[in-house]
Amino acid sequence: MLTEAQLAAICERSRPKLESMREAIRRFGSALVAYSGGVDSAFVLKVAHGELGGRAVALTALSPSIPAEEAQAASELARQIGARHLTVESKELDNPSYAANPVDRCYFCKSELFELCESKRAELGLSAVLDGFNADDRKDHRPGQTAARERKVRSPLAEAGLTKEEIRAWSRSLGLPTWDKPPMPCLASRIPYGTAVTAQRLSQIGGAEADLRALGLRTFRVRHHGEVARIEISAEEYPRFSEPSFRQRASELLRRRGFVFVALDLEPFRSGRMNEAARVKPEAVALPVLDG
């Protein structure tokens, strides 16, 4: 955990990036923010609302791949920010190309999302659609950015060069409760590529993770391998599993969710492990100049 002094230093050295982002958002004049309630999109919404007021609107797409508690938290945070918040139903599971779970699954998910965003942007007469893609995201496999480029979605965080660490530091400075929120990508990311994404599997994963979160785990994943639930946890949470009663309770809860075997991964959690297993590499992401 970073100290207050370290957080302040990060903000100070990245201040020009934030000012560049703010200026560009002002130039848009109005914007619709593709908003999940995670660290990045919450920060974009906070800054956009600060610069544009009621001309910044948040849109959250609801689907089986988003846990209900995440959608509720996103709604509450938008209310705290003071931004208008809309929700729409996303039907990516109806797309066979998405459900088949290829390595570019996120392309089909983001295509659906950004089509919904563009439709609502046009309906409301707003100037641009903004997403939460940041400078560090270029280091990972992000096929969803192809969908963003095709639909002229703007990524003010990445365009300004803001990294995840800087976004978290500024989120803390601006009073956002998401500043230290663990990463929370969609539930489909827990299913190995090539294994079909179904509503039943998403519900099983979502329920299992909710159970473990209720036990006090914070940064973790439940990976779905058929009958096997493979739990990845952060390094600091391994001591929890040294307690026989905790292990037993965790195993019982996941078995109730339909898993036959429950395994603890010996390697600490880190984002992108499914991509590593599939040997997919980051794509070069060309971004527009932040000129509004």
Write the layout of secondary structure elements.
Blueprint: H1 4-28, E1 31-34, H2 39-52, E2 56-62, H3 68-81, E3 84-89, H4 96-99, H5 105-124, E4 128-130, H6 144-150, H7 156-160, H8 164-173, H9 199-214, E5 220-225, E6 228-233, H10 244-256, E7 261-264, H11 273-278
Parallel strand pairs: 1-2, 1-4, 2-3, 6-7
Antiparallel strand pairs: 5-6
Helix pairs in contact: 1-2, 1-8, 2-3, 5-6
Q: What's the CATH class of the largest domain, please?
A: Alpha Beta
Content-based structural category? alpha/beta
Low-confidence stretches: 284-292
How large is the share of residues in beta strands? 5-15%
Q: Please state the CA-atom Rg, rounded to the nearest Å.
A: 19 Å
Number of domains: 2
Description:
The chain has eleven helices and seven strands. With 292 residues, it is an alpha/beta fold. The chain folds into two domains: 177 residues, HUPs (Rossmann fold, 3-Layer(aba) Sandwich); 84 residues, Histidine-containing Protein, Chain: A (2-Layer Sandwich). The chain has a four-stranded parallel beta sheet with strand order 3-2-1-4, with helices on both faces. The protein has a three-stranded mixed beta sheet with strand order 5-6-7, with helices on one face. Helix 1 packs across helix 2 and helix 1 packs across helix 8. The C terminus is likely disordered.
